[in-house]
Amino acid sequence: MSGAGGNAAEDGQVNLPVGVSVAVGEIAIMVAVSVLVKLVSADIDTVTVLLFRYLLCLPLLVGTAIWQRGGKALSITAPKTLAIRIVTGLISLACFYAALDLMALSLVTVLFQTLTLFVTFLAPLLLGERVGWRRWSAVIVGFGGTMLLLNPSAAAGWTMAGLLFGLGAPFFGAMMMISLRKLGRRDSPATTAVWHNGCGALIFAGIVVVTGARMPSTSTDLAILVAVGVLSSFQQFGLALSHKLVPASILAPLHYLSIPMGIAAGILMFGEVLTAEIIIGSTIIIASSIFILRRERQIRSAAGS
Predict the structure, then answer these.
(1) Residues with Cβ < 8 Å from 266, sequence gap 6 or more?
(2) Between the CA of residue 14 and those of 19, 82, 144, 268, 275, what are the distances in Å?
(3) At what angle do helices 258-270 and 276-304 cross, to 10 degrees?
(4) What does pTM read for this prediction?
(5) pLDDT above 90 covers what percent of the chain?
(6) Confidence check: pLDDT of 249 > 80
């Protein structure tokens, strides 16, 4: 859940086969990390998992920032943008990990894909953007699919806390995207990622110390937490690289591959049950979100012509 790199279409570096392959790999890593987080959620507090995730992301990200920017690896020009990105990004990921502890992996994965719906819903309120009736209709239909998902027969065992965390992750993720849209992307993605993960490591280290959160007590738990951090760093690197190789308009629909991947992982690893409500609800959410993305692209194209 980190910012992407430069625009491939503008940089003239388009490489569709490699970019799409990297994007699919990045999505697979994201699902794998979710599986690992859920595996240790019963034994390790969420804040401890977040500490390891942010701390162990830093070596690769710092190395990348130094390689790209040298002595300016930590130099920023928009501290307000960065602060908003850090706060909303940390809350979004914390909600996502907490939801994995309380709900099925498949349901948490599908709920996170309502992010596009939240962006469209919040844009008129926070940016003053005009959203036409077509996109409003898609938002309503998409959230209707969400309500179908939350039918007790489709999401057996979910709690109100789990629901709040499950929807809090895409909500704050949307807030992060809107803040970036409003304030602009003026700093290097590599530098931004270092600040984001560094602040995350410091904040969650403080929370772990103050609350006395559970630390890993077995070598297996420790190995899983290390894997979460290392894999997350490669996931962020892959996300940035894919955006350098392929235009975002092509990559956006690919991220919905996380839904079938997440459902399959939930069934194989945790014995989750695939219901008609999950199939229909996730299909509605995907269709509504893709419609919104296509409509926004049409509007941008018309405005630029």
Answers:
(1) 104, 105, 106, 109, 272
(2) 8, 28, 37, 36, 39
(3) 160
(4) 0.87
(5) 43
(6) no
Of residues 28, 93, 96, 103, the one with CA closest to residue 259: 28
The per-residue pLDDT of the chain, averaged, comes to: 85
Residue-wise DSSP of 49-70:
HHHHHHHHHHHHHHHHHHHHHG
Domain residue spans of the chain: 8-304
For the chain, the 3-state helix, strand and coil shares in percent, each to the nearest 5, are 80, 0, 20
10-14 long-range contacts, CB within 8 A, separation 24+: 11/244, 13/244, 13/245, 14/245, 14/246, 14/247
Q: Using the structure block, give the residue that is written with the tokens 């830093």.
A: 58
| pLDDT score of 184 | 57
In contact, 3 and 81? CB cutoff 8 Å: no
pLDDT tens readout for residues 230-242: 999 999 888 878 8
Contact in structure between 168 and 95 (CB atoms under 8 Å): yes
